[in-house]
Amino acid sequence: MRTTISGYGFPLRMMGLVSALVLLAACSSPASPVPPTPAPTPTNTPLPPTATVALPEGGAEWDYVVLGASAVWGFFRKYAAHIEADLGVKVTVHDWTFPDQHSTALLRNLRHSKELRSDILEAEVVTFYIPPEYLRTSLHSYYDGSCGGEDNQDCLREGLTSYKADVDAILAEILSLTSTSDTLIRPMTFYDPFVNYHKKLGIFEDVTPYVKTANEYVVQIASEHNLPAAQVYLAFNGPNGDEDAADKGYMSDTMNTDSVSMHTNSVGAALIADLHRELGYEPLAP
Predict the structure, then answer these.
(1) End-to-end Cα separation, the chain, in angstroms
(2) Phi, psi torsion values for 66, nearest 5 degrees
(3) Can you say how many angstroms the Cα of residue 206 is from the centroid of all Cα atoms in its chain?
(4) pLDDT by residue (tens digit) across 57-80?
C-alpha cells in the first residue's frame, strides 16, 4: 500500500550512528577540502527545451511513480508541478515511499507488490531514491569498535557491498517492468545531512568515502543504462562531500539541540525538483 507522509528524527548521537553507516566505502581518505561551492538557487530555473512539445488534443494525463523513503517527501510534488507546467499534462502521483525504508525493503516491494508493479507498468514517469539505511546499520558496530578488521571498518565495507547489490537489483527490477524508450526513469543520489556532526566527532574522513562511493555507484549504474541521474549529493554536499547541507539552508530546522534533521526544507526540496527538471523529458518529449 501507499504510505501517508510523516517525518522522523533521531537523537543526535543515534543519528550519527545511523548516518555514518550510510557513509561506507573505501579505506582511502577523501580529497582535500575545497571552499564551499555557491548554493544553487532553486528558483528561476529556465524551462527545458521540451516545454513546447506538441500534446494530444485536449491534453494528456501522466502517471508518476515515486519510490524511496521519507527523504524525498518534499520534492516529488514540486517535480510533478514542473512537468505539468512545462508540458501541459495532468500528473497523477503514485506515492510508494515509506518512512525508514531501506534498500532491501524497497527491492522486496518491487518484486512482490502487485499494485506497485502495476503502477510502474502504467507509468510515464518513475523516480527513485535508494535509501542507504542498509549501510547505516553498520554504524553501531563501527562506534563500539566491533566493526571488524584492523581499521574497524569491515562492516562498513560489507554494508557498501550489500548496498551496491541492491542498487543493481532495484534498477533491474524497474527496467523489467518498463522501458527507457517510453518512460522517464530518473534515479537520484542521496544527500548526507551529517557532515558537520561527523567532523565534530572526528570520523568524517573515515565514513565519507563510503557515502561518496555509494553515490558514485548509483550514477555509474544509471549511466550504463543511459539513464540520467539527479546529482543530489553533489549539489547538497559538494564535490568532496565536505559541505554541510544545513549550512546551505537546505535542511529543515531541528526540534532541539539534541537532534539533527534528516529532511529537507522547502528550499532543499525545490532544489531536488529542479535537478530532476534539468534532466529534461526525453524520451517522451524530444
Answers:
(1) 34
(2) -115, 130
(3) 22
(4) 446 899 999 999 988 888 999 999
pTM over 0.85: no
* Residues 6+ away with beta carbon under 8 Å from 241: 30, 192, 195, 208, 211, 212, 233
The rounded distance, in Å, linking the Cα atoms of 246 and 84 is: 30
Classify residue 72 by its DSSP letter.
G
Q: What is the overall mean pLDDT for the chain?
A: 81
Q: List alpha helices for the chain, DSSP H.
A: 12-20, 76-87, 103-112, 114-122, 133-136, 139-143, 154-177, 195-201, 204-224, 232-237, 266-277
Among 63, 65, 73, residue whose Cα is nearest residue 127: 65
**Residue recorded with cell 574497524:** 152
Per the CB < 8 A criterion, the answer to whether 235 and 184 are in contact is no
